[in-house]
Design brief:
The structure holds two protein chains of two kinds. Chain A is an alpha+beta fold. In chain A, 18% of the residues lie in helices and 21% in strands. Chain A has a domain at 5-65: Ubiquitin-like (UB roll) (Roll), CATH 3.10.20. In chain A, strands 2-1-3 form a three-stranded antiparallel β-sheet, with helices on one face. Chain B has nine helices and no strands. The longest helix of chain B is centred in the N-terminal third of the chain and has 29 residues, at 32-60. Chain B is globular and about 55 Å long. Classes of the chains: A alpha+beta, B mainly alpha. The A-B interface holds A 1-2, 4-5, 8, 29-32, 35-36, 39-40, 43-44, 47 and B 30-34, 36-37, 40, 147-148, 151, 155-156, 158-160, 163.
Chain lengths: 97, 260
């Protein structure tokens, strides 16, 4: 049984590029089911050879952090520079990391 | 003109006419995702037509070009299947709510791409190396076109009462036109005899199987055919082709040699 056009759920699309190791979020679209979402993603987001693999996930399945909590969640990390690995001497032989 | 060159024109005309027809949905698709999907199909078909016209033009010589073949030939010169020039609605049934019925569009793409996956697969083994190369490239595109169309045939057929009725009406309208696939023209016979081209009749059982599988899943009924064989590939067309070509060719004819 098909879903009516106006009721197509929203899907988030993740595409892995040829060079990329991970799937990156590239946008969203409406589709009636998962297989349909994959096809639509192929047509909408990989037309210019952007990818070699696609993931889709229904947007409502994603749990997101609340923008209102931004202060308490993320701001405290701002002054903890010691968490960045910038205090090591890297030997010449290691080269670029 | 050799039989193989004429056959290249038949393949090219098929691709350009359906590409142009499907492009009428551009900006008017039922959903934006589907609008883009169908525009992709159109661009694939127009790309195939370009390769085929370029190849034909090279063989015709005398300054022939792909543009001249696409834009400066008239209706009786076109060798496309009649199926591909028909509008996006079936004139004789009341289900189409406008002159753009997506069920008709999808069913036509399904019937044609089910044929072309078989034709391109056979032609990629052709001793004619240029034709084989075009076939190998086009096969991947046709496989996706079939995948896309067959999915929608199933969604429509096995969908709501209305989508089922409209899909069946489109199938009833279009199916008789597929008889043209299986009745070779003199050009096809000569091209087959030259060894460069596959006898499409040998593909019929495989086409029947693809159609039967999809229609079964879609709960649609294969219509009876009653002996009518269209003659588009002989250059005898429905009235619809002249309107389609009129729109497609007007710019090139009003401004010959224009570039942008």
């Amino acid at each position: 049984m098909s879903i009516e056009l106006k009721d197509w759920p929203l899907w988030e699309v993740f595409v892995r590029s040829k060079q990329g190791l991970e799937h990156k979020h590239c946008g969203s679209l409406h589709a009636s089911d998962a297989a349909h979402a994959l096809e639509a993603a192929r047509d909408v987001y990989t037309r210019r050879q952007e990818g070699v693999s696609i993931w889709v996930v229904e947007s409502k399945k994603i749990t997101a952090s609340n923008p209102d909590d931004k202060g308490e969640l993320f701001d405290p990390a701002a002054d903890k520079i010691y968490r960045h690995p910038t205090f090591y001497e890297i030997p010449e032989e290691v080269g670029h990391m | 003109m050799s039989a193989t060159t004429e056959y290249l024109l038949h393949l090219a005309d098929n691709a350009v006419v359906l590409g142009q027809r499907n492009a009428e949905w551009c900006g008017h698709g039922p959903a934006i995702e589907e609008d883009i999907a169908l525009a992709n199909v159109s661009l694939d078909l127009i790309g195939q037509a370009r390769l085929l016209y370029q190849q034909a033009a090279e063989r015709i010589g005398n300054g022939a070009t792909e543009d001249q073949l696409a834009y400066f030939r008239d209706v009786p010169d076109f060798r496309n299947y009649t199926l591909l020039e028909l509008p996006h609605h079936s004139a004789l049934v009341g289900y189409a709510k406008s002159n753009m019925d997506y069920g008709t569009t999808i069913v036509r793409n399904f019937l044609y791409s089910a044929l072309m996956v078989l034709v391109w697969d056979a032609l990629q083994k052709s001793p004619d190396a240029d034709l084989a190369a075009i076939a190998a490239k086009s096969l991947k595109e046709a496989r996706y076109h079939l995948h896309h169309a067959a999915d929608w045939v199933v969604k429509f057929g096995d969908g709501t009462e209305e989508s089922h009725a409209r899909a069946q009406a489109a199938l009833d309208h279009l199916f008789p036109y597929t008889e043209e696939f299986w009745t070779p023209s003199a050009i096809e016979d000569a091209a087959i005899a030259s060894g460069a081209v596959t006898d499409v009749r040998t593909l019929r059982a495989a086409w029947d199987a693809i159609v039967a599988d999809t229609l079964a899943e879609a709960t649609l009924k294969r219509p009876e055919v009653r002996g009518y064989v269209p003659e588009g590939k002989h250059g005898r067309h429905s009235e619809h082709l002249s309107y389609l070509l009129g729109e497609m060719q007007v710019l090139a004819r009003a401004h010959p040699g224009a570039t942008w």
